């Protein structure tokens, strides 16, 4: 029996819920290591984060293409920001070529430095900092690593004892000290969801809250293309995404 668009929206929500649940599970040990010391050493953060994310990045047919923790400089002495971020094995791309092992994100390159000049203003950091909730950024082209469309899922990381002891706030008062996050390649999301989309007898498109296409079974709509932002669709639970039915009928930009 064919699926309904509502069924597909539920399936999308379940995939994203799985990633958010993983971020929650990663966040707790990161917060613990930060709270254990008023001035957390980068090596301590790196060791904990690597032990958490590398198994997910190297599992068979992983959904995640990258993951890690981005720390505000408040908790890392002498640094404006600290990236404890890894990329899983990648197919050939213009930046890294083909890789068969996880790769640490290298902030010493000129491109990364420029990109992070005002990292607090970037959507994947700014929205969790403002709302104190998880956020989905994208789809957008990741020019730093994959040179392909990705979605970035982030949620705030808080600390209490570390900031209070260091004089940045009252002891015991939670304060955001960074984000835990994961990148999902749109190609891998298609692999997880395309069968469900194709099991509906009309074309569908998965779009974000701006109407930008994430994936589609309508041949005239490509990833990143805009559809009307106010077009009605089936909301995907726990995400800012929705499934449009017969999206070409409502026009696109």
Which short descriptors sum up this protein?
Beta-Lactamase, alpha+beta, 32% helix, 6 helices, 253 residues, 2 domains, 10 strands
Description:
- The chain is α+β, with helices and mostly antiparallel strands.
- It has two domains: 184 residues, PAS domain (Beta-Lactamase, 2-Layer Sandwich), CATH 3.30.450.20; 54 residues, no CATH class.
- Helices cover 32% and strands 24% of the residues.
- It is built from six helices and ten strands.
- The chain has a six-stranded antiparallel sheet.
- Helix 1 packs antiparallel against helix 2 and helix 1 runs antiparallel to helix 6.
- The chain is globular, with a radius of gyration of 19 Å.
- About 2% of the residues have low confidence.
């Amino acid at each position: 029996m064919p699926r309904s668009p509502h069924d597909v929206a539920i399936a999308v929500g379940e995939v994203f819920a799985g990633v958010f649940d993983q971020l929650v599970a990663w966040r707790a040990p990161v917060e613990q290591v930060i709270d254990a010391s008023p001035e957390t050493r980068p090596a301590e953060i790196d060791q904990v984060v690597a032990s958490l994310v590398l198994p997910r990045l190297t599992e068979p047919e992983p959904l995640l293409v990258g993951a890690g923790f981005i720390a505000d400089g408040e908790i890392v002495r002498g640094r404006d920001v600290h990236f404890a971020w890894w990329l899983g094995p990648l197919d050939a791309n213009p930046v890294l070529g083909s890789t068969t092992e996880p790769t640490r994100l290298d902030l010493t390159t000129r491109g990364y430095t420029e990109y992070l000049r005002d990292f607090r203003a970037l959507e994947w950091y700014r929205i969790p900092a403002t709302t104190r909730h998880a956020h989905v950024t994208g789809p957008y082209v990741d020019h730093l690593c994959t040179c392909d469309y990705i979605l970035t899922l982030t949620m705030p990381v808080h600390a209490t004892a570390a900031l209070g002891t260091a004089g940045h706030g009252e002891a015991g008062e939670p304060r955001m000290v960074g984000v835990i996050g994961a990148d999902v390649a749109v190609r891998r999301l298609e692999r997880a969801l395309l069968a469900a989309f194709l099991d509906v007898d009309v074309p569908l498109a998965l779009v974000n809250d701006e109407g930008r296409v994430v994936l589609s079974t309508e041949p005239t709509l490509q990833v990143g293309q805009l559809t009307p932002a106010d077009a009605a669709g089936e909301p995907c639970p726990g995400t800012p995404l929705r499934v449009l039915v017969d999206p070409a009928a409502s026009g696109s930009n």
